[in-house]
Amino acid sequence: MKKNKKMDILYEDKELLVINKPAGLLTIATDKEKERTLYHQAREYVKKQNPKNKIFIVHRLDKDTSGIVVFAKNEKLKLLLQKNWEQVAIKREYIALICGTPKNKKQRVENYLLETKTLHVYNTKDRTGKLAITDYEVLKSNKQFSLVRIHILTGRKNQIRVAMHSIGCPIVGDKKYGANKNPYRRLCLHANLLELVRPKTHKHYLFEAKIPNLFYQELEEKYGTITKSNSK
């Protein structure tokens, strides 16, 4: 495992670079922000090794979500992974801190998502949107919050945030989707595990990003004990 002052590198070889992205950092550039991105940091990192090196983003996380992001070091692998992402990313696990306690301790949530012109993603009750499938399981809860493990079977924009909002338990810090509490000053959603099967070679990779301590520590101090649970 290699470390970098600016990046938490989880895995690196000749063709892959896997990074634990912090919350509050864009994955790729926007019209308003070009350089303060994970992509820019990754590009600078590989170019320091060799000015001819290139980096390609395979998938992305929302700015306010932390966790695992995969880069390819050549375009051929990038296109191969992206083309088959739903098949090669065989397990995508997130940990979230949500407001309240869901009625069901374990549930599959199906939403049909559309996006407005102002880029707000919402659930269409008439099922005219794109299907998003989200499984969750409550690990532990108290009167204020619940810690949940989430698996996504589709990769829609904001699908986890919409799913939690749709069951009446928005993610802590997610003001956009109804959260009225934000003790941590961040969105409490973290991509902590990704199991990947490389196309053609069928080599398996298991990447894990440690769950932020604040998901546990401040909650225990303020609202009572929530016991850590193994993410596997």
Structure description:
This protein is an alpha+beta fold. The protein has two domains: 1-83, 2-Layer Sandwich (Pseudouridine synthase); 85-232, Pseudouridine synthase. 17% of the residues lie in helices and 34% in strands. The chain contains five helices and eleven strands; from the N terminus they run ββαββααβββββαββα. It has helices at 38-49, 75-83, 85-88, 159-166, 217-223, and strands spanning 8-12, 16-21, 56-57, 66-72, 89-99, 106-115, 121-123, 130-141, 145-152, 189-197, 204-208. Strands 1, 2, 3, 4, 5, 6, 7, 8, 9, 10 and 11 form an eleven-stranded mixed β-sheet that branches. Strand 8 and strand 9 (145-152) form a beta hairpin. The longest helix has 12 residues, at 38-49. 34% of the residues are buried. The model is unreliable at 226-232 (pLDDT under 50).
Notable characteristics:
single chain; 232 residues; alpha+beta; Pseudouridine synthase; 2 domains; eleven-stranded mixed beta sheet; 17% helix; 34% strand; globular; disordered C terminus
